[in-house]
Fold this sequence. Notes:
Number of helices of chain A: 8
Oligomer: homodimer
Structural class of chain A: alpha+beta
Largest interface: A-B, 67 and 67 residues
Shape of chain A: globular
Low-confidence stretches of chain A: none
Amino acid sequence: MSNLKIQITRNENKKEKVPADQLIFGRTFTDHMFIADYTEGIGWHDHRIIPYQPVTLDPSATIFHYGQTVFEGMKAYLSDDGIVRLFRPEENMKRMNNSCDRMSMAKIDEEHALEALKQLIEVDKEWIPSEPGTSLYIRPFMIATESHLGVSASLTYSFIIIMSPVGSYYKEGIHPVKILVESEYVRAVAGGTGTAKTAGNYASCLKAQEVADLGGYAQVLWLDGIERKYIEEVGSMNVFFKIGGEVVTPALNGSILDGITRKSIIQLLKHWDVPVTERKVSMEEIREAYRTGKLDEAFGTGTAAVISPIGELRWKGELFYVNNGETGELSKKLYDTLTGIQKGTVQDPFGWVVEL
Amino acid sequence: MSNLKIQITRNENKKEKVPADQLIFGRTFTDHMFIADYTEGIGWHDHRIIPYQPVTLDPSATIFHYGQTVFEGMKAYLSDDGIVRLFRPEENMKRMNNSCDRMSMAKIDEEHALEALKQLIEVDKEWIPSEPGTSLYIRPFMIATESHLGVSASLTYSFIIIMSPVGSYYKEGIHPVKILVESEYVRAVAGGTGTAKTAGNYASCLKAQEVADLGGYAQVLWLDGIERKYIEEVGSMNVFFKIGGEVVTPALNGSILDGITRKSIIQLLKHWDVPVTERKVSMEEIREAYRTGKLDEAFGTGTAAVISPIGELRWKGELFYVNNGETGELSKKLYDTLTGIQKGTVQDPFGWVVEL
């Protein structure tokens, strides 16, 4: 289908592999990378797989000054049957283009990007770890490369894919984390860039994370920037609560990221006939649920952890414990099912998995 | 005072100068740049002036993914007496550190940064144009350079200064522009990063600027992200209105940039005994002032234009004309005084100018 021509230059100086139990997230990269360049008036050109190497840019490049950049995060899984699987990769490419639109950046050809990714994985297949819980983390990203200090959209871009073998997120099994509800800093508001997967959203969150770290909290929970009462996201994940039998998650409101794990979980819950609602969820509602013993479960969802159970929430000095600080039954079932589908050990009724 | 050691490597391949009337903002750069590196646990090191050259970074560098970067904009002026002048440069370095704090980045030594800037200007002095209205635009910036995809503050940074000779902002004399009041997109809210001079704030504004461009508007005027009624900034400038004899500008509220031109203008107006107030300014108030004939003047303020008079405002289909679309008396006086102080032709009663 795809008529994409990719020039492949093999790396003659392959790196030594790092044992799976020594992998640190995002520190080790494979031997190759994909890159394509965009020039206004010409389009995308020079699609190539090359040895993993530095990027060279003029110090006036737009990315350094005005932050035009978007990224995606996805994973490839190698199962015992030797098959490599991707989880809904077309959704990542689609979202990347939505992000590009918000940031006034060139759009990718989604089909070409997927083709490039598949070829890159093929070239670096030996880098995919197969131990339980491991995967190959994939980072497609685009940067604005024009040498110009005027505040305007760049006329040139590079689309790059790098890959990093990652160990198990839960080395000692899935377990809940403590979360600090953020009351001072704001992640995003409607009309801003909160729905785009762009660098500025992450830089702005580091300050709040520093405060959370000091208190021994794994992540912050973001409230809306207007009334500071409605729940938005937790760290860089979407968030779900099970309250008195109903599963609720903040509705996409123009400032929340449209998570692929999030939408998969909603689909899975509906498939199981578990009541799930996308709506506004306030901290007052969480407090009330806690006080009346209805706060059954809480968990973050994202590509890295898949499901990250929440055992404790701190909000303005109040502490809400969830499920005695233990992983809830539904959280565990969702985790096992999703990771099972991703690994090919659980049947995929939705056609989510792409086998390479 | 400063005990900073800067290694200087001269450029043996100097570029040809571009005639002042052919300079385009931020396209031409001088022969040298300053760079220093930061490593957590060591601090700033390897302060050096080197030939202007590309920056080389690992594709996993934090700047590409999580947007930790801050910048400043300032100008050096060469006057007929051969003296090079900077305008309140210590304010830029101070603000840069405030931005670094918000973005969880390493702080610079402000005195060292000024010393580095002065030495860089000395090395590239021949690049400062002297024609009326011209200057040497200076761009200090810092980028996060660590090779790591984990979402956390980088442990390494580079602080870089590049310089670009710029022509006159007003080739045909100071003149008013048309401004579109933005109702869909939001620049920043309190708790976000609006007060920091960081890349993400600029990337997020490009989409609205695209719409403004299509309608023939020079810039957008940003409203607050919460009630969408109070004025924040215009494009990447602060904004002032003269209403019935009083000059008003939006108060610093946690989402507006603390502009150095802005604060200089407030000081100058007070020095002149012109009533000036920092407070909330709503679009309803501007409409009312327009309808009652009290909207005397409006102008943006920033390093690039110094004063940018506003001749027309469009808000939800309504048009407000300011001063018959001509530059107001006060706007002109502020422009002449500030640019005169910067060039050394008008006395500087505030000690703003630093002569090199």
